Amino acid sequence: MNLEPSAVPDMDDLLNQVRRQTEEVRRIQRSIEAMEVKGYSRGNEVTAVLRGDGRFSAIDIDPEAIRRYDARNLGEIVQEAVNNGLQKLAEASNAKFAPVIESAKSLES
Q1: Distance between CA 92 and CA 94 in Å, rounded?
Q2: DSSP 8-class letter at 53
Q3: Which of 39, 41, 44, 106 could form an SS bridge with 77, CB 3.0 to 4.6 Å?
Q4: Domain boundaries of the chain, sorted by first residue
């Protein structure tokens, strides 16, 4: 197999691209960890506040909902808010990483 020198990628350039992408991934990870998203149940009776690291910082329940629903139904409403927050967190994370993923795909070409 005989490659022309111009066809062989410059290893220093490739390493620099990898370093830049690695730093960009770290920067995005830090920004995601600093994020806070809110998830809501139907009727906004429960609000779940999640941090970017996946931990909850608050779950707020409307006092009227506590009076209106039994424990099982209230648990389902809390679950809705939590799942909504997790979905929003995943969507935000995917949006932040999309440019890096696209950039990596272009390196493969």
Answers
A1: 5
A2: T
A3: 41
A4: 11-102
Residue 84 CB coordination number (10 Å): 20
CA atoms within 13 A on the CB side of 9: 10
Rounded to whole angstroms, the Cα distance separating 32 from 94 reads 10
SS3 content of the chain, % helix, strand, coil (to 5): 70, 15, 15
Kindly report the pTM of this predicted structure. Answer: 0.75
User: How many CB atoms are closer than 10 A to CB 69?
Assistant: 15
- pLDDT by residue, tens only, the chain of 109 residues: 455 556 667 888 888 888 888 898 899 899 899 999 999 999 999 999 999 998 999 999 999 999 999 999 999 999 999 999 999 999 999 898 888 788 777 766 5
Residue that the structure tokens 């779940």 belong to: 48
DSSP secondary structure code for residue 52 in this structure = T
